[in-house]
Amino acid sequence: MRILLVSQMYPGPDDPELGIFVRQLEGELLALGHDIDRAVLEGRGGGVLRHLKLARRAWARAGETEPDVVYGHFLFPACASALVAARRAGAPLVATAHGRDVRNIGSIRGVGSATEWVMRNAATTIAVSEFLRRELEAKLPDVSDNIEVIDCGVDLTRFHMRDATVARAQLAWEGEGPFYVHVGTLDERKNVVRLADAFASLGAGQLAFVGDGPLRSQLEGRERVRVVGRVPHEDVGEWIAAADVVCQPSVIEPFGLAILEAMASGRTVVATRIGGPAEFVSPEAGVLVDPLQVDDIASGMRSAATFGSPNTRARETASKHAVNVQARRIAEVLERAAHAASA
């Protein structure tokens, strides 16, 4: 099957972690024997012009490669470009909703109608969580009858169980435990200030923030808190391995890939109960918390630290979401769409 991959997020030399989940799925689809060409954006800058550039690339690649199906990521604007490319190629579109593209419906003028146009003309829309599927049903009820839920999966080879003591020694992370890690942008949605306040109330342990963002200054200088900043994507697994508990009590989390990666690494998690994590964090794998209640976050952190490390039950749960398993499910959707279009 010839697939044209269209995405507004894709790893590039200046931003190697951008849309890494798209590249992982691409790699698994290639391993299944499919031919893939792509029209993608590898950087964050450029404003509206970058999306015009993506539209031109998608249009050109559709004409040159004549794909059997177009596989788009992010309902708008990328999947609008993917739909135009699909029409040029006479191929169906399978569109993917990831989170912000759904949140933008109703908050940015014109996005709702553009997204409805994409979904109405797509063969199938894939949502990465049941939470997102429900959001789409609520916001666009007239076009929500053909949505499948398939998450992007986790790389079980890259994220695996390792000795936390060894990982901490390699990172020169010292002190008395428990050791807590947060991976992600330091912003309001990721709820990092409440997490730091909850940690302070515990009175013991160490907390590391891996990532950067506008709230960094509110985290620096706190007792027993280490603000690592942004690290290369290949080093994220090292910090997860160094943790006893990985925390992501986001205000809202459409899916929660970092939580799934932590579970695959055999680490207990503290995750928000609002959004995707509630669908895959089992009671044996971690604790779900109310992200707006500092006391509840602290209670969850305290409880999670008693689970033991490594947490083999967390690894077992994550294995059900292996990226190769999810890629096979996506391939079935793509093949079904291509077959229906050619019948």
Helix and strand layout, with pairings?
Layout: E1 2-7, H1 20-31, E2 35-40, H2 47-65, E3 69-73, H3 78-89, E4 93-97, H4 100-103, H5 111-121, E5 124-127, H6 130-139, E6 147-149, H7 164-171, E7 179-183, H8 192-202, E8 206-210, E9 225-229, H9 233-242, E10 245-248, H10 257-264, E11 268-272, E12 286-289, H11 294-304, H12 312-319, H13 323-342
Helix pairs in contact: 1-13, 2-3, 7-9, 8-11, 10-12
Report on the structure:
The chain is of the alpha/beta class. It folds into 2 domains: 2-153 and 323-342, Glycogen Phosphorylase B (Rossmann fold, 3-Layer(aba) Sandwich); 164-319, Rossmann fold (3-Layer(aba) Sandwich). It contains 13 helices and 12 strands. The protein has helices spanning 20-31, 47-65, 78-89, 100-103, 111-121, 130-139, 164-171, 192-202, 233-242, 257-264, 294-304, 312-319, 323-342; strands at residues 2-7, 35-40, 69-73, 93-97, 124-127, 147-149, 179-183, 206-210, 225-229, 245-248, 268-272, 286-289. It has a 6-stranded parallel β-sheet, with helices on both faces. Helix 8 (192-202) packs across helix 11 and helix 10 (257-264) crosses helix 12 (312-319). The longest helix is centred in the C-terminal third of the chain and has 20 residues, at 323-342.
Outline of the structure:
The chain is 42% helix and 17% strand.
> What is the CATH topology of the largest domain?
Rossmann fold
Count of DSSP helices? Answer: 13
Extended strand count? 12
Spell the H/E element sequence: EHEHEHEHHEHEHEHEEHEHEEHHH
Order the strands across the largest sheet as they lie in space: 2-1-3-4-5-6
